[in-house]
Design goal:
The chain is α+β, with helices and mostly antiparallel strands. It has two domains: about 120 residues, NADH Oxidase, CATH 3.40.109; about 110 residues, NADH Oxidase (3-Layer(aba) Sandwich), CATH 3.40.109. It is built from nine helices and ten strands. Strands 5, 6, 7, 8, 9 and 10 form a six-stranded mixed sheet that branches. A four-stranded antiparallel sheet has the order 1-2-4-3, with helices on both faces. A hairpin with a 4-residue loop joins strand 9 and strand 10. It is globular.
């Protein structure tokens, strides 16, 4: 559990080197396996070899604030409808794919296409472009100086800030988490990636379940991709405690004193 998320870093620079064909074949195999598991969800994943062309087409418009990530290859995430479930599980299975990609010695980085109009997306990705809201930059990470001091991880919310006990905005105590042997789980889950490092996830801990919520101020700040990402890592990490269950999606909203909250899912513990 210690290294599972602390080692998950979003690389924003890639070596100017194409991935070898055998490794790309394994990437495609990983995509096929993930799509087989995601059968029934309205999503697609497509590998694009022509990274140079895609980068040139999306330069200055793709990514947050027009910061397009350059890489030798990309994977497109197609969300085939606008349902919350599709956005959540599109992100869930994309993160699962990233785990497989990392095992091949490659790195990946999410790139949003929210500011790229449909006409442009169609010209870049063909018929799938209109539904391609996100892409992954993939490739070899840059070489690093082994003697350089590694930069510390970005700032994270404290456990008491993201975990509530019985009522929303009622902070949990570390003693409570330690008694239930889930203190490490919530300590390390904080290192999950999120849009602009916003860390919007909140967990409502009750006697026999955990409820996942997203905190937000304005509707435009609510990104359901963050929900799918954290759901995947939570399920994977809690397996180390001998619990192999899955989240059940729920719906609802709550307006607290500190923030607005959207109910996402429940997990029995």
């Amino acid at each position: 559990m210690n290294n599972f998320l602390r080692d998950r870093k979003s690389v924003r620079e890639f070596r100017d080197k194409k991935v070898d064909s055998k490794t790309l074949d394994k990437v495609q195999e990983s995509i096929n396996l993930v799509l087989e598991e995601a059968k029934g969800e309205n999503i697609g994943l497509s590998l694009y070899m022509n990274g140079v062309n895609i980068y040139e087409e999306l330069k200055d418009i793709g990514g947050y604030s027009g910061t397009m990530i350059k890489s030798p290859h990309y994977i497109g995430l197609e969300l085939k409808d606008s349902q919350d479930r599709t956005q959540i599980y599109g992100a869930y299975y994309t993160e699962k794919l990233i785990t497989s990609i990392n095992k091949l010695g490659l790195e990946a980085c999410w790139v949003t296409l929210s500011h790229v109009d449909k006409e442009k997306r169609n010209s870049v990705f063909g018929n799938l472009g209109e539904k391609t809201d996100y892409i992954l930059s993939i490739g070899y990470p840059p070489r690093r100086n082994p003697f350089a001091i590694e930069k510390p991880a970005s700032a994270r919310h404290g456990v008491e800030e993201i975990v509530f006990k019985d009522q929303i905005e009622n902070p949990v105590s570390m003693d409570e988490l330690e008694t239930r042997a889930i203190d490490d789980l919530f300590y390390y889950i904080r290192f999950a990636p999120s849009s602009r490092n916003s860390q919007p996830w909140r967990f409502l801990l009750e006697k026999d379940k955990v409820t996942l919520l997203l905190a937000y101020d304005e509707d435009k700040d609510l990104t359901l991709v963050d929900a799918g990402v954290i759901m995947y890592y939570f399920e994977e990490m809690i397996k180390s405690l001998g619990i192999s269950r899955t989240w059940k999606l729920i719906d609802g909203n709550f307006e607290g004193k500190e923030s607005k909250y959207k109910y996402i899912a429940e997990f029995e513990i």
